[in-house]
Amino acid sequence: MAAETWLWEERGRTAAPLWRKARTLAVDVAEPLIRLAQIPGAFVPGLDRALDKASDLTALFGADLNISPLDGPAAFAPLDGVPPPVVSKDGEGPVFFDGVETTITVAHNGRGKEQILLERIDLCVIAHAPGPDPYFAYSLEGEGIIGAGFIEPLRFYVEVGANGARPARRQVTRPDGGKAMLVARGPNFLDTDPPSFYAIGPDELPVMLKLTVTALDAGYYETCFRFFYRVAARELRQYTTDPIRLYTDGA
User: Fold this and answer.
1) Phi (first) and psi of residue 36, to 5 degrees
2) φ/ψ (deg, to 5) at 132
3) Are strands 207-215 and 154-161 parallel, antiparallel or unpaired?
4) Minimal CA–CA distance to 95: which of 124, 47, 127?
5) CA-CA distance, 132 to 219, in Å (whole number)?
6) Cα–Cα distance for residue pair 98/207, rounded to 1 Å
7) Which residues pair with 246 in a beta bridge?
8) What is the spatial distance between Cα 18 and Cα 63, in angstroms, rounded to a whole number?
9) Please, how many CA atoms are within 13 Å of residue 147, restricted to the half-sphere of its CB?
10) pLDDT digit string (tens) for the chain, length 251 residues
């Protein structure tokens, strides 16, 4: 049986998973973020739900990031020259062929004056089934921002293969007006030279992110983005996006 085309107008917004929320990972933490983020399985979606519940009790501040969900057609743009997305085997969401461009906006929620520092963005592989799958067989074909002012999006490009996500590349504008790429030194998209940390205050415009994920090796991928940030330079929190599902035959 072949997959059916995913039609947003018929299915509407996908249901928000239980783990899509901000979680408090540590309070007054002095440990470097990179060590916390590399604990195996500690912050994978669907795990540590006790920590989810406890976070509501341990949060020091009402200030937080509003991160737009990946649950509607405005958040996704299929790659050029490929068929439209199809329904996943479990029926829970769309599966994009070869890759997809996602749009996410990040803004201060305005509850308090504390500044929020976005320290890490990474791509987490939730599940991977290698090799071609007849269910996804295909042949190649020849949330909006609310506010005032022009916002230049931050553009990231990341490939994922059988061995996981590769270092992301961020497009930047050179002094002469041309474009260049900064390559991350590890899983953290913001770990570049120079490093790119983003301080977000209550009176600032949202930050728009354009993140393009491309699948390299044949197979099915279920991934998500993870955001790690500190409130008032003290409380460490994590937000996990909705799943991003990809399939490629590797051709």
Assistant:
1) -65, -40
2) -65, 150
3) parallel
4) 127
5) 6
6) 27
7) 96, 221
8) 21
9) 16
10) 678 999 887 765 555 554 556 777 777 765 555 455 554 444 444 444 434 444 444 578 889 999 998 888 899 999 988 889 999 998 888 999 999 999 999 999 999 999 999 989 999 898 899 999 999 876 544 443 344 445 678 899 999 999 999 999 998 877 777 788 899 999 999 998 877 888 999 998 899 999 999 999 999 999 999 898 999 988 888 888 888 999 998 76
* Distances in whole angstroms, Cα of residue 29 to Cα of each of 146, 197, 235: 33, 18, 7
Average pLDDT of the chain is 80
